[in-house]
Design goal:
The protein is mostly beta strands. Helices cover about 0% and strands about 50% of the residues. It has no helices and eleven strands. Strands 2, 4, 5, 6, 9, 10 and 11 form a seven-stranded mixed beta sheet that branches. Strands 1-3-8-7 form a four-stranded antiparallel beta sheet, with no helix packed on it. The relative contact order is 0.32.
């Protein structure tokens, strides 16, 4: 069992930046981020392997978001730049076996709101 605690969400204007953090209680093969916008299904955002040498991104965030991890701290980060109103969602940290359709473990979520 892996416990995940997210932080770093908030309100930002379009074009701005935010950095999300997720602290994991233990080592995880992969870590990632998903999001759920109001009235929409949960969607994959980004994922990274323990080694850090393999990252994946949703097409909608490529070039704007960067996922990274600090294994010494069991923490994964999501740097979000050039934010758009359509990025508004609850962002969930994920761990374990992370694929584009789901993951083994989930955090409680953190709200990101981008105003126009």
């Amino acid at each position: 069992q892996v416990q995940l605690v997210e932080s770093g969400g908030g309100l930002v204007q379009a074009g701005g930046s935010l950095r999300l953090s997720c602290a994991a209680s233990g080592r995880s093969f992969s870590l990632g981020w998903f999001r759920r916008a109001p009235g929409k299904e949960r969607e994959f955002v980004a994922a990274i392997r323990w080694s850090g040498d393999n990252t994946r991104y949703a097409d909608s965030v490529k070039g704007r978001f960067t996922i990274s991890r600090d294994n010494a701290k069991n923490t994964v980060y999501l740097q979000m730049n050039s934010l758009k109103p359509e990025d508004t969602a609850v962002y969930y940290c994920a761990a374990g076996v992370v694929g584009t359709s789901g993951a083994s473990y989930w955090g409680q979520g953190t709200q990101v709101t981008v105003s126009s």
